[in-house]
Each structure stands twice: as C-alpha cells, then as structure tokens.
Amino acid sequence: MLKSPLLLSAAAAGAAVTAALAASPWWWAAALPLLLLTAVGIHDVLQRRHSVLRNYPLLGHLRFALEAVRPEIQQYFVERNFDGRPFDRDTRSIVYERAKGTDAEEPFGTERDLYLSGTEYLAPSMAPRPVRTDPPRVRVGGPDCTQPYDMALLNVSAMSFGSLSANAIRALNAGARAGGFAHDTGEGGLSEHHLGPGGDLVWEIGTGYFGCRTDDGGFDERQFALKAAHPQVKAVTLKISQGAKPGIGGVLPGAKVTAEIARVRGVPQGRTVVSPPYHRVYSTPRELVRFLHRMRELAGGKPVGFKLCVGSRREFLAVCRAMLEEGTAPDFIVVDGAEGGTGAAPLEFADAVGLPLREGLMTVHNALVGTGLRDRLRIGASGKVATGGDLVRCLVQGADYTNAARAMMFAVGCIQAQRCHTNTCPVGVATQDARRARALDVADKAARVRRFQEATVRSALQIMAAMGVDGPEGLRPHMLVQRLDPHTVRSYADLHEWPAPGQLLASPPASWAADWEAADPDRFTG
Asked: HSE on the CB side for 253, CA within 13 Å?
C-alpha cells in the first residue's frame, strides 16, 4: 500500500499516546517523535509540489536525502550504466532546474571530453548579436492550406493519453496554453484531458486510427472531420513511424486500458491494444500524398503533415517524386530520431533500427531542397531535444522547429523509475492507477512545463546571439562543428553534401543520382 509508512506511524503514535496516558509518562518520549513523524507524513500527502511525497509519504524523503549527495550517487550509477540509457546527469539537471525555475550556473566547468571523436559544438562568433526578446514563430501551412498555424520553436512531442495519466496530459496542455506553444496528442486519440485546459493541439493519427476508427479498425472520415474541426486542433499529423519503434505499431498494456481509455480509443476495455505496423489508407508514395491531401480537405484546410523515423533515402525521394507529380504536398514533416524513447518499444528496435535524428533531418531537408519542395513545407525535429543547444543543433541540421517528449515528462515530474509498462509509476505520470495519478498536481506541473519551455527557448536564442545571428534564419551548416579524431575537426558544411535548390531535378550530385533515379512514386523500395 502506497501510504503504509504513514499509517504505521499514525498507529504507533496512537498506541504510544495511549500508553503515556494510561500507563507511564515515559511513553511520551516515544509518542512525541511518532506524532511529529505522522504530522510530516500528513503534510506530505496534502502538499502539491512533490508527487513522490504525495504517493510515498515519509518514505519519499529518502529520495531527497540521496539527491543531497547527488554528484556522488548519480555519478556512480551513470558510470556503471545502471540508469537504462537515459539522458546524462547534466541534461537531467538542466531540465529539472528550468522546470522548477531555479536554473543556475554550474561551477568548475564542463565534464565533457572535448577531444572525444564525434563530439559536436556550435561555433561562437567574434561579433555576437543582442539577444532577441521576442521568440520567433514558424508559419506552418503551404499553398494548399487555408488555416496556417504559427508554431513555437519548442513544443510538446507526441505522448498519448493511456501511456500518460489524465493529470499528466492536463498539465502538459495547460503548460502549452500558458506558454503559447503546441501540444501533440500522440496516437491515442483526442480526449477531454487534451481539450479541457485549452492549449493548442496537434492531433496525431496512427495506424490504429484511434479517435477516428471504424468498427473494423479502419479510418473513419466522418469522425475525423468532426474532431479535426475543433478550434483547439491547429494541425493534424499522420504517424508513419516513430524513432524508438520504427516499422512496428504501438502497444498499450491491457492493465492501462480503462473504461475511459477504451472509449477515447474505440477499443475493448482491459485488453492490450496493439497498433498495426502499417497503414490501411496507403500502400504507395503516391497514395500517401493523396491521402494527406484528403486529410487536409477533411480538416477544413488546417495544416497536415506526417511523422517518420527515416530509414531509406530512396523511399523518401519516392515520396518527393509523388509530391511533384501530384502537384500537392503536406504542410510539414516531423522527423523522429532513433534515439527517441518510449516505454512500449522492444529493446532491439530501440537499439538497432532507424536513423538517428541528425542523419534523418539532413536526409529530409536535403531531399526537399534538391527537389525544390523545401519552401512549401516545414520540418519539425523530435528525438532527445532537451536543451537550447539541442534545439539550435536541430535548426542547423535542417529543422524549422522542435518537439520534446522525455524532457517534458521530466518537467511534469518523471523521475525515470522506468515502470511505464507496469502501471505503477511512482509519481503519477505514466499510469492509469487513479491513486498514483492523483499525486500529480496539474497546476504546479503545468507551471513547470511552461517554465521549462520558456527557459529552453531563451537559452537557444542566447546561443544563436553568441553565434552572431539574430534568429534561426541566420544559421548555416558551417556553424556546427564535429570532431573526427583528437586532431581533426570539420564543420557540417564540409562533412556533408548540401544540394542546391532544385539540383536533383536538373543535375543530381553523384552521391544522390542512383537513389533519385530509382525513386518510384508508385512503389516503396528499400
């Protein structure tokens, strides 16, 4: 039982007080400390700042005692790889501190090995610029879009209601509303918890078509059009694949499929939900492009895009050919990196399948530039984006804006207990257990989400100013440098090929020619 220590303390205090009154005043020596302990436990349950203490009164203080010696304790686990491929300690600290509004400088400099092969750094300028105070927005909406949306530089990435608790979803959306950024629903459907707080939404549709699903699991145009018309839905995403599990569908354990989840998704209660690995609505690049165009019509002209973890450059070029031949294109593409995380992915997929975000971003960006399509759509980046430096790197590599999932989970209180699949999340983030979820105070965690996003975008703008540019439009590939070995560094401009606008149509570079020639708008190829 979650509150057993408090109950035991209260029972022991009651027994000690009874003994002191009935037997001997010496029992007060035990009763007073027990009463104090009980009072602390009651305060833990009633306070709203720490989810761990609300779920684990008294016992939760052990976590904070360990945090007091964090550098020694956490470094021990990091060095021995016991925290399951999480963010590194410094990144977690940045997210937590920004969410709490206590972002501070770290003494004694960096702990990075700056001479390690593969290390990247952003190049500062000898002529830095003033830091702009108005965070830029990215207009999402191509020539076929009649209701464009201005996207923030950092937004909430896709996390479904079902994988996350209702309180976590509400906190994320309330934070997005307060901060003026977008909240991707994930593929689990459009729930009242997404809509209730009033934040802007990007509705994600996966292979299960949850929320717009026919009885046999197909896509229901009528349901989709009805829900896409909601004023909070600012854009719609068709999820082809995601970084942590490219090529397979999502899994929601039956223990988390409550009556409410079943209603929102349109699935049986209590049964494990496995999304198909493929879409029914298309089987060729041309069919994909046509379906996206149809989605935009059904959505009343709102921006429509798709999300993928890139695998084959040839396949993506086939989609580009289909866009050119059909004369239409999506309004945005979200590139997810293989480094993305989830609590419902086979370990071998997370470790071995799909391109990392860097390669995926550059593949999509350069393919669109080379085919003359880049100006009509925007690119979002999702894959372990947590700091201002991460954000700026993504922009240099080809993105227009970024989405964060795991960092946003940290902001609402995730402590990386890695119990997401068991329904026993100790802080109420990734659970459908009402007792555990109630520990997550929506108002407090929404403020943390807003503070984290605001501080991270501000950090990105500070970095860009230090690089000598006024905003994302001034970033260039030569401003990101990678160390190849202890003696050699090269900029991205030198390391990678950047086709000129329309170059693939006129005279493809030798390294692109074979893939471009083989790209077939009527067939996906490996």
From this structure: 17
| Residue range(s) defining the domain that contains residue 46 | 4-82
Determine, yes or no, domain membership for 55.
yes
Task: Give me the number of domains the chain comprises.
Answer: 2
Does one domain contain both 67 and 180? no
Is 489 contained in some domain?
yes
pLDDT > 50? residue 87: yes
- Cβ-proximal residues to 192 (8 Å cutoff; 6+ apart), any chain: none
Cβ-based neighbours of 105, under 8 Å, separated by 6 or more = none
What is the domain-level CATH number for residue 290?
3.20.20.70
- In this structure, are residues 337 and 233 in contact, taking their beta carbons and an 8 Å threshold? no
Query: DSSP letters along 261-277, please?
Result: HHHHHTS-TTS-EE--S
* Residues 144, 303: Cα–Cα separation, whole Å: 9
What tens digit of pLDDT does each residue of 18-48 get? 887 888 888 888 878 888 878 777 776 777 7
- Both tokens assigned to 519: 């790209």
Report the candidate in 296, 192, 205, 272 with the shortest Cα–Cα distance to residue 242: 205
Q: Which amino acid is at 127?
A: A
In-domain check, residue 90? no
Number of helical (H) and strand (E) elements in the chain, helices listed first: 21, 15
∠ Cα 249 253 258 (to 5°): 115
Are residues 213 and 313 part of one domain?
A: yes
Check whether residue 69 and residue 150 sit in a common domain. no
Does residue 73 sit in the same domain as residue 192? no
The predicted-structure confidence for 231-275, as pLDDT tens digits, reads as follows 999 999 999 988 666 666 777 778 778 889 889 988 888 888 888
User: Rounded to the nearest 5 degrees, what angle is found at the Cα of 57, between the Cα atoms of 52 and 59?
Assistant: 85
Q: Which of 49, 82, 115 is the last residue of a domain?
A: 82
The conformation of residue 132, written as its DSSP 8-state character, comes to P
Query: 467 and 125 in contact (C-beta within 8 Å)?
Result: yes
Nearest to 387 by CA among 57, 26, 48, 106: 106
- Residue 104: inside a domain: no
CB atoms near residue 293 (< 10 Å):
18
Claim to verify: residue 19 and residue 159 sit in the same structural domain: no
Clarify whether residues 447 and 315 are in a common domain: yes
Whether 205 and 224 have beta carbons less than 8 Å apart is answered as yes
DSSP string covering 471-507, please? SGGG--GGGEEEEEETTEEEEHHHHS--PPTTHHHHS
* pTM score of the predicted model: 0.87
Q: Last residue of a domain, which of 58, 82, 106? A: 82
